[in-house]
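Weekly puzzle thread! Below is a chain. First person to post its structure in token form gets bragging rights.
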Amino acid sequence: MTFESENPNAEALRAQRAAENRHVFWGAARRLVARATSGMSSAALCVLCVSALGFGSSGAQQAPKYEVYAIRYAQIPFKVSNLIEGADPARSIDIAMIVVLIKGPNGRNVLFDAGFYRPQLMNQWKPQAYIRPDSAVAKFGVRPEDISDVIISHIHWDHFDGADLFPKAKVWIQRDEIEHHVDSAGGVLNRAITAYDAKMLNDIRAAGRLAIAEGDAKEIIPGITVYTGGKHTFQSQYVTVNTAEGTVLLASDNAYLYENFDKHVPISQSVDKASNLAAQDRMLKLVSNPRLIVTGHDPAVFTRFPEVAPGVVRIK
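Winning reply:
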């Protein structure tokens, strides 16, 4: 099944017009180049071609550099054995509930994961020190309507439920994650998603704001790339972000805690633990420095990085 609707005739017409425009453009370009390079030596022509293609030039297009901020909007007591494979069942931790603000040039504001807010979830989980995710972002000076994109790591309640709090955002989810959990009418196919969040996803689709991520290692926004294989859910994704400090990696629940990396153990809630462990190994290779990894729920995120406001740290 598919979630995009596209008029095939309109698409064919656009393609035909684009081809015609390219033909006209390149014809004119060839004539101009012929006039401009008449009498030039072959060496000079070679230099001109290299410069035009941007090889070795400082003018080559660079990926934008973002600022990345982790925002804690709540905390919830949790058994570590539900996070770390093989952990002592007696251990518990107050996990951090996190959304990540990615601030780009030209005022682009991207949110990684959207938190939760619905009363059913508030009553069930009774979060502590809770701030609704849109209010948490607004306290940082970004209005909910100023969020241009929301990248959802996976469809669990604490990551996806708040997606409709950001009314103008394009919402990015892996195609396989959608089609495994929700049918084309917004019905639940797998109990990993709640009925009200499945309906929300369908409403976002109907509004034309659903954006499909198509698999592994895809740059969905300049400087922001999504990866699959973590297997917390059927097709959960994690993200790398280009920053001035290097490549930052946002693991979400594909690595709950830094203990996953320190002890080289998979998360306890995974549909494929071997794949999850391989994904964690890959994460270490994708970043400029392992310290630039942000795990999904570790409260240590807020002591490892410099605080810029209460409950907000900058990843650098």
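Puzzle host: Confirmed. Bonus trivia for everyone else. The domain at 67-314 is CATH 3.60.15.10 (Metallo-beta-lactamase; Chain A).
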